[in-house]
Amino acid sequence: MTDTTQTLPPSTAENIAELTLEEKASLTSGGSFWTTKAVERVGIPAIMLTDGPHGLRKQAGSADHLGLAESVPATCFPPAVGLGASWDAELAERVGEALGVESAIENVAVLLGPGINIKRSPLCGRNFEYLSEDPIVSGVLGAGLVRGIQSKGVGASLKHFAANNQENDRMRASSDVDERPLREIYLRGFQRAVQDAQPWTVMCSYNRINGVYASEDPWLLTRVLRDEWGFEGLVVSDWGAVNERVPSLAAGMDLEMPTSNGHTDAQLVAAVRDGSLDESVLDVAAGRVLDLVRKSQAGAGSITGPLDADAHHALAREAAGRGIVLLKNDGDLLPLSPAASVAVIGAFAEKPRYQGAGSSKINPTRLDNALDEISGYAGHDNTFFAQGYTVSPRDTADANELRAAAVELAGSKDVAVLFLGLPEAAESEGYDREHIDLPADQLALLDAVLAANPNTVVVLSNGGVVALPFADRVPAILEAWLLGQAGGGATADVLYGAVNPSAKLTETIPLRLQDTPSFLDFGGMDGHVRYGEGLFVGYRWYDARDIEVAYPFGHGLSYTTFAYGDAAASVDANGDIDVCLTVTNTGTRDGREVVQVYTSLADSTVRRPVRELKAFASVALAAGQSREIVLTVRREDLAYWHVAAQRWVVEGGSYLVEVAASSRDLRSSASVTVEGDAVSLPLTRESSLGEVFAHPVAGPIVQAALTQMMSTMDGAASIMPEGVDMMRMMNSFPIGRIGMMAGEDFSPEMIDQLLAMANAPQS
Ligand code: BGC
């Protein structure tokens, strides 16, 4: 019941002693929808925790966790889908700082973000709130956001811990994940962000993991999070994620949110009184709440309003511009000349889709639209608009008329910029998508516009990736995601070249939903979601199966070009791999290149993806500039989770290090020899002969004995078909059952003696 590894933060020890049992219990659940409880008798104030993540959603009136009621105006920065595409932790940190400032001005102690769950399937309704299909990208950018927020004396809440990769049935379903993918894919990003940035809080998710609710899983919340990773903060529940309060507290779930109206506090008090809960466990949880209150009070009042809304809007615009991916640009159609007459087509150009539905929905301080911003570049007289299609069911305009007007406009202008995207209801917190297609009327409009004007640029607005069946036919495509309140301006900046695109895909765009890794079991059945693709998530899947994709992970073009020099790789004093190369901007425009490093190990003893991202950098280069850069692959990121040894193991060998412009655009490579971690597993009767043969002590003895035995077996050689390797046939035979073949040559006693000898400490 009591987990002895949970200890009270030292700074809270005396205060806890002053509190009654009831007061301690009261600290461990919310006082309202968004606040903790005060203990006025001893001067402990209540603090506020609120959404998040890409802006502040502080509700002054009615409270809800679905983004329904109003919140105070705040800057809506690009949601994670857009910010992540920058691959820039420093930019994420600057956005985090701005989020911290806005939270501090509003006296918010903890901002509920960032969300760093892996995009397991494009169908997840909440992918717009997540950063990537890759854990290193998610962890590194997540850590940047946490650092930025917390630098302003406001806590972050790393969420949703863990394996919360779908919305349907999210409050009950069990994510059934094998240990290696759980560790190497789904937890690795959390581990990185916890260890690099120490978030003040981690939010446990609604779902179960391998049958156990995240909110009552001592393995997850205490053994892994605290004992292995060294997390020092507080675990808060997702809103309503607590199933049974007493076991959740014992598991390490410190603060239940929102309020339980005192019901679960009473359960904790009763459990302490009847002896089923050790009071020291409650002390630890209440102590962590006190610690959080103390941290948030330390800087309280040092950042005051009014908010510099202009400066934050400018940062939102910069970040949005850094999130737009130039997917293709045939014939250098982009950037556009301001002198060209432009037909701007599509409802989203005027009424942008800039954030997703649900608890992250921000009430923006202002809202750019692309149409106005484009006319800012091209001039009012040169910019023409047609709605093209409807996105709201309430819009009763005639579809045929809208399309005809758009096509006529497109045909009469130098260039058409066509905004396509997903209607708001197509993706949301709380439910998943059923397909990845754009609306049929938009696709039909695209065909008609293209026929009328081949100089058509498509700009996409979507939170989860969409199929692009038109990619071969359209000369230029900008993936503009959901980009926050300044996305319209940023889109115009990229269209006209004021910003040179530098974003790259943090998730693969597949050709078809059927090609996606979790296609057969996404969503699950009977409350269980089998993660059958294992480690092979995102590009790991498409590469292992050699599946063609629309655009690969890591892809994104620029208006300039970059050359990669020869890479050199060496192991440094920390055991990390330093990868060194020169990158040159070979074009005539300043730009940025996201340089990616992938590693692989041929002949590995464990199943592995073809290549895995291990490091990356966003490198700014002026036109013509060359720069030598060093990217570091951390030794711990080379490790795989050794299931039998129950620990991370770096396998020794010659690693191939590939430096790349995308996961399928490899530019330079080098090999480097890495020394492996020693793993010695005790031999048991269950050990296979193969494992025994590999053992330094037992191996030679058993091999010699078996060779001898076979040479004396009557007719053994004559009945074996030529070329069949007898030893190899026996590799998977458990040594405990060898007596069946070897009889007296290997009695059970002899096997036990051999095992004891093999397992004895070697001098
Ligand atoms: C969401 C969290 C959010 C919380 C509070 C939950 O439904 O999953 O991400 O922080 O509500 O609004």
Describe the structure.
α2 crosses α10, α4 runs antiparallel to α11 and α14 runs parallel beside α15. The two termini are 40 Å apart. The protein is 31% helix and 18% strand. Strands 11-16-15-14-12-13 form a 6-stranded mixed sheet, with helices on both faces. The protein has 4 domains: 278 residues, TIM Barrel; 235 residues, Glycoside hydrolase family 3 C-terminal domain (Rossmann fold); 113 residues, Immunoglobulins (Immunoglobulin-like); 71 residues, no CATH class. The protein is built from 24 helices and 29 strands. The radius of gyration is 29 Å and the shape is globular. The chain has 763 residues and is α/β, with parallel strands linked by helices. The site of beta-D-glucopyranose has 9 residues, from β4.
Question: What descriptive keywords fit this protein?
Answer:
4 domains; single chain; 763 residues; binds beta-D-glucopyranose; alpha/beta; Immunoglobulin-like; TIM Barrel; 24 helices; 31% helix; Rossmann fold
* Helix run count: 24
Q: Remind me, CATH topology of the largest domain?
A: TIM Barrel
Strand content: 15-25%
Q: Which value, in Å, is the CA radius of gyration?
A: 29 Å
What class do helices, strands and sheet pairing give? alpha/beta
> What CATH architecture of the largest domain do you see?
Alpha-Beta Barrel
N→C terminal distance = 40 Å
Q: Could you state the CATH homologous superfamily of the largest domain? A: Glycoside hydrolase, family 3, N-terminal domain
Strand count, sense and closure of the main sheet?
6 strands, mixed
- Hetero ligands: beta-D-glucopyranose
**Count of separate structural domains:** 4
Strand adjacency order, main sheet: 11-16-15-14-12-13
Count of extended strands = 29
Mean pLDDT: 94
Q: Indicate the low-confidence ranges by residue numbers.
A: 1-5
The global form is globular
